[in-house]
Write a structure and sequence with these properties.
Blueprint: E1 3-8, E2 11-17, H1 25-35, E3 43-46, E4 49-50, H2 57-60, E5 67-71, H3 93-99, H4 113-123, H5 126-133, H6 146-164, H7 172-181, E6 188-189, E7 192-193, H8 198-212, H9 225-229, E8 231-238, E9 245-252, E10 255-258, H10 266-273, E11 275-282, E12 287-299, E13 306-309, E14 311-314, E15 319-322, H11 341-361, H12 366-399
Parallel strand pairs: 1-5, 10-13
Antiparallel strand pairs: 1-2, 3-4, 3-5, 6-7, 8-9, 8-12, 11-12, 14-15
Helix pairs in contact: 4-8, 6-7, 6-8
Catalytic activity: Thiol-dependent hydrolysis of ester, thioester, amide, peptide and isopeptide bonds formed by the C-terminal Gly of ubiquitin (a 76-residue protein attached to proteins as an intracellular targeting signal)
Keywords: Hydrolase, Protease, Thiol protease, Ubl conjugation pathway
Family: Belongs to the peptidase C19 family.
Length: 400
């Protein structure tokens, strides 16, 4: 193989072997490793002009020891970073919180986990934070009492502290205001504040915010609490003994998942919670009777709250008891079966659109499904026809 000397700028690269059985692009690749000039930028002067990538060496007449001239600009040398890579786990704790998108936590002020969990749950709703930001510092003449106003302000301020801090927040102002508005959360035993129920705290706080965060006290663009959490129920109240029946409507802010030995899944618990029995005076019978109350959802909120009812009252011990039973729940909760006929009609078209979109993602198109259904129907008819002919044939053989 001949060897050549290649001059590039002020440098000369001697003794470069040329494999004449390979195209010139191989030589250019060799020069790339020496000079950093990519093959597409290299211009090498040979007899008759520039060296082409697919030229035939035998026609170029390159001799051993010949000097070739190359023109071209090398790629810019990548500089090493001034600072090495920094991993999230190497950051200070405060910066880790910001990098991972976590908000600050809340200090436990002594059996206040019920309150902290309620605040953190509501803090995760951006529309609620927007409503609180637009809430006025002064009470307006819309029937709001001072204690409710103060609790709303304390909620707004606590949410602000959580958003502006990466370190745990001490919700002392909120706790004091909550106990003034609802003294039940100030109960003590042996001079120690008692543990309370998170659902009761959530219910009281949501009720207060539903009274204060109205269209009169916040911007019209902000959604009220009813649209965020309110559930319109329509109930059929029926007495099997007297035949009395009536329809009732009510607004609630959570569905109840009643837990018993028969409940293994969230759907079952909600179903139990929507059908209850109650005793009340019957005008027809002139005495107390048992009524069955069956409820259906007539309007859904943007955020659906479900309470796992794990506590019941033990008469023999005269105290609360907790049901320690595992109840499974889905990542996506479908409450269509719990809706009223009126709401089902409204949801039918959007549900079909979602179903079609999911089918499209999975590659299941309606045309294919219809063809498969038609084919299976034809196969079934064919099988039925064969079976009928077989029976007729057997009957004929038996009779003859």
């Amino acid at each position: 193989m001949p060897t050549v000397n290649v001059k590039w700028q002020k440098e000369v690269f001697p003794g470069i072997e040329i494999d004449t059985s390979q195209p010139p692009i191989v030589l250019k690749s060799q020069l790339y490793t020496l000079t950093g000039v990519p093959p597409e930028r290299q211009k090498i002067m040979v007899k008759g002009g520039l060296l082409k990538d697919d030229a035939d060496w035998s026609t170029l007449g390159v001799k051993d020891g010949q000097k070739l001239m190359m023109i071209g600009t090398a790629d810019e040398i990548v500089k090493a970073p001034e600072k090495g890579p920094l991993f999230v786990e190497d950051l200070p704790e405060e910066e880790q919180v910001v990098a991972l998108g976590h908000s600050a936590g809340l200090y436990n002020l002594g059996n206040t986990c019920y309150m902290n969990s309620t605040l953190q749950c509501l803090h995760s709703v951006p529309e609620l934070k927007s409503a609180l930001l637009s809430y006025s510092d002064t009470v307006k003449g819309n029937g709001i009492d001072q204690a409710s106003h103060n609790l709303t302000l304390a909620t707004r301020n606590t949410f602000g502290d959580l958003d502006q801090s990466v370190r745990p927040v001490t919700p002392l102002q909120f706790l004091q205001t909550l106990r003034k508005k609802y003294p039940q959360f100030a109960q003590q035993h042996n001079n120690v504040y008692m543990q309370q129920d998170a659902e009761e705290c959530w219910t009281q706080l949501v009720y207060t915010l539903s009274q204060t965060l109205t269209s009169d006290s916040s911007e019209s663009a902000v959604l009220p609490m009813k649209q965020l959490f309110g559930i319109d129920l329509v109930s059929r109240v029926h007495c099997a003994e007297s035949g009395e029946e009536s329809m009732e409507t009510e607004l609630v802010y959570s569905l109840k998942c009643h837990i018993s030995q028969d409940v293994n899944h969230l759907h079952e618990g909600i179903k139990h919670g929507l059908k209850t029995e109650l005793e009340k005076a019957s005008p027809t019978l002139g005495r107390t009777a048992v009524y069955t109350r069956e409820s259906r959802i007539n309007e859904l909120p943007r955020y659906l709250t479900v309470q796992f009812v794990r506590f019941f009252w033990k008469r023999e011990s005269n105290q609360k008891a907790k049901i320690l039973r595992k109840v499974d729940y889905p990542l996506e909760l479908d409450v269509y079966e719990f809706c009223s006929d009126e709401l089902k009609k409204k949801l039918k078209a959007p549900r079909q659109m979602l179903r079609d979109a999911e089918n499209a993602k999975l590659g299941l198109y309606m045309g294919k499904l219809a063809a498969q259904k038609k084919m299976s129907h034809q196969v079934a008819l064919g099988n039925r026809l064969v079976w009928t002919l077989t029976k007729l044939s057997l009957l004929y053989q038996r009779n003859n």
